[in-house]
Design goal:
single chain; alpha/beta
């Protein structure tokens, strides 16, 4: 049995951490971050954590690299303050797309992030919708991989799902979209992409499934620049889709993504608050909170109960 439950948060998404604390009826741990003139960071834990079951909340959001270092320093500070167990709660995992060696002389950086968290002193990790689920295998400590499917699917069910079809942007996304299809009892379609030149990115070529005269819901794990999503939406429109909705977990929305999505043919974007929007707003956005799911996961881990119950 671990000691008292305590939650600390880095600066990346403190509002979400506060909502989780409110649901769990615990106070957010007292800590402070000092950034020196040489850009070095110092993290100070301002309360006793000896023997406690501590959860450190930090998502991957700009400035990404500063957030990573802040998380590592916080874990190390807690370890040396004799915390009983330290769990890193990372809703959007850093470098999640760098999961394989697909070019010569590059780092598998997602594995490096796993190594750094373990070295810093994390005993466990809680994350959500990894781009590649096998990233959990980079760790030698327990990883609880939460899914946003129940949250997003429950929201989609509030609308009339007549004549709707779920769409995977490519074959690699088909398994993830299948989880939504099973939950919503909807048909699936897959965009078949082909590469037509050495320097070109894969382009939509065919649709496997029926989208003509249908309302399409494109499902993905994250949206960064939005270009691939918009390309898929335009292709579906050409194939006769009546309307397009996009549903995804992580709103990276880098650069001019918001303006790009706002002008697109996509009518609505449904996503979670794993990353703070930081002023990126649109009337097309519908933001769903993951706070209740993470709060339940933290409570179950603390009490020694099964996490798998949350996916039913």
């Amino acid at each position: 049995m671990h000691g008292p439950l305590k939650i600390f948060a880095g600066r990346s998404h403190k509002k979400l951490a506060e909502r989780i604390c409110h649901i769990l009826d615990v106070h957010l741990g007292d800590s402070e971050v000092v950034k020196f003139s040489n850009e070095n960071l110092m993290v100070k834990i301002n309360e006793n954590v000896r023997g406690c079951d501590v959860y450190v909340f930090q998502t991957s959001a700009p400035p990404v690299h500063e957030g990573i270092i802040e998380l590592l320093i916080t874990i190390d500070a807690l370890k040396h303050a004799s915390a009983g167990r330290i769990t890193a709660v990372v809703p959007y995992f850093p470098y999640v797309r760098s999961d394989k060696k697909d070019k010569p002389r590059i780092s598998i950086t997602a594995r490096l992030m796993a190594d750094l968290l373990e070295t810093a002193g994390a005993d466990r990790v809680v994350t959500m919708d990894l781009h590649s689920p096998q990233i959990a295998g980079f760790f030698r400590i327990p990883v609880d991989h939460l899914q946003a499917v129940p949250i997003i699917a429950d929201h989609l069910q509030q609308a009339d799902l007549t004549n709707r079809v779920l769409v995977a942007g490519d074959a690699g996304e088909a398994k993830e979209v299948g989880r939504y299809a099973n939950r919503l009892h909807l048909p699936m379609a897959i965009i078949d992409k082909r590469r037509y030149g050495d320097d070109e990115k894969p382009k939509p070529a065919h649709v496997i499934g029926d989208v003509d005269g249908k309302h399409c819901i494109i499902v993905d794990d994250e949206v960064s620049t939005g270009r691939t999503l918009i390309e898929a939406a335009n292709f579906l429109k050409e194939k006769g889709a009546l309307s397009i909705t996009a549903a995804f977990t992580h709103p990276v929305l880098a650069g001019e993504a918001v303006a790009r999505l706002q002008k697109s043919v996509i009518e609505q974007f449904v996503f979670c608050d794993t990353i703070p929007l930081q002023g990126k707003q649109s009337e097309k956005f519908r933001v769903l909170s993951v706070s209740e799911l993470f709060a339940k996961a933290i409570r179950r881990i603390h009490d020694g109960d099964s996490i798998s119950q949350l996916f039913r």
